[in-house]
Amino acid sequence: MAKKQTTFNKIVEITWVDAEEHGIVGWNDLEEMKEFAKSAPPTIKSVGYVVFENSEHISIVSSIGPDICGTMEKIPTTFIKDIKEL
Q1: Is 38 left (phi over 0), alpha (psi -120 to 50) or beta?
Q2: How many domains does the chain have?
Q3: Is 78 inside any structural domain?
Q4: Is residue 1 in some structural domain?
């Protein structure tokens, strides 16, 4: 039996804003937390082959073979600021 050949032709760069958490388990200094609360969440750029895409999220992998791939990033569309097709 021949191996299934899977091709993902769409490669994208996604600019998105990530959710963020700060602090340690237990008690944290309220003034420090209030200062952290004012800072913007980090903006991230991810590049990869589009494996799946719908109105809720996009899934990409950065490495792909005929029947294996690297880890997958699943990014909610509400986090996405921009998508550029490469």
Answers
A1: alpha
A2: 1
A3: yes
A4: no
Max CA pair span of the chain? 64
pLDDT in tens, the chain (86 residues): 455 556 688 999 999 999 999 999 999 999 999 999 999 999 999 999 999 999 999 999 999 988 899 999 999 999 999 999 99
In a domain, 79, yes or no: yes
Model pTM score: 0.83
Range(s) of the domain holding residue 81: 11-19+26-85
- 71-80 contacts, C-beta under 8 A, 24 or more apart: 73/46, 73/48, 75/14, 75/16, 75/46, 79/16, 79/17, 79/18, 79/19, 80/14, 80/15, 80/16
55 within domain boundaries: yes
